[in-house]
Amino acid sequence: MIRAVIIDDEKNNIDNLEGLLQKHCPEVVITAHALNADEGKQIILQYQPDIVFLDIQMPGKNGFDLLQSLPQYSFEIIFVTAFDQYGIQAVKFSAIDYLLKPVNTAELKIAVEKAVVKSKMKMQNLQLQNLMELLQHKQEKNEHRLALTTAKETRFVKPEQIIRCESSNSYTSFYLTDGKMIMVSKPIFEYEELLKEYGFIRCHQSHVINTAKVKSWIKENGSQLLLEDGSIVPISRNKKEIVAEALRIFKAG
Hints:
Blueprint: E1 2-7, H1 11-24, E2 28-34, H2 37-47, E3 51-55, H3 63-68, E4 76-81, H4 88-93, E5 98-100, H5 105-119, H6 126-136, E6 146-149, E7 154-157, E8 162-168, E9 171-176, E10 181-184, H7 188-195, E11 200-204, E12 207-210, E13 214-218, E14 224-227, E15 232-234, H8 240-246
Parallel strand pairs: 1-2, 1-3, 3-4, 4-5
Antiparallel strand pairs: 6-7, 8-9, 8-12, 9-10, 11-12, 13-14, 14-15
C-alpha cells in the first residue's frame, strides 16, 4: 500500500480528493490530513508518507513555504490548486505533476500512477529539490535548471546549455551545447512557454531556438538560421518579424 497525506485549507476539498482516491486509486491510503502549512509539516514528519497531495495557495504560509521548511524530500509530491498561474511556471520547469481544482479523475489516476512508480524507488526527490532552488533563486536565471524527464532518467539542464528544441509529433528533442540530445514525451509548445523568458523563440512550427546561439540569418533558399552547433533551422514566413525583433536586426526581406 502507498501511504499519502492531504494538505489543504478547505475540508471539503480534502474529503472530495480522499473520496476520489478511494474509488479510483485503491492502492493509496490516506494516513492523515491537515488544514494549514504548520499542521502539514507535522504530519509529513510524523507519518513519513510516500505521496503528499498539497494545495499551493493557503492562508498564512503557502504550500511552497511548507516545503522550504522541510529538511529533505523523501516523498513524491502532487500539487492540487485552483490557481493555474500561482507558481505553476516553476512547477512545470521542474516537471512536477499538478492538478487543477476541481480534480479531473483521469489526470488524478495518471499523476498517482507516476508517483507510485517513483516512490517505490525510495530516492531523494530531485525534482522537488530543483523546484525549491528555483523558488529560492527566482531572480538568478543563470542558476535555474529545466527538468527533462525521459524513460530512463530526469536530467536537469540550464537553459543556456540548450541550443534548440525540435518537435516530432508529441515528442520534443533538446540539442545541447555538449553535443548530446535528449528526447522527452511532451509537445514543443509547453517548452516554448517555459523558455521564452530565457531568450528562446518559436521560429517555426517544429522549432524553438535559443537566440543567444544564433550565428547568422541565411536568406538563400528561404529564410533559415545557422546555429552554433552547425545546425540550420527554417524560419516560417509568419515568424520573420518575431525573429528579426528577437535578434534585434532590421526586417528581413
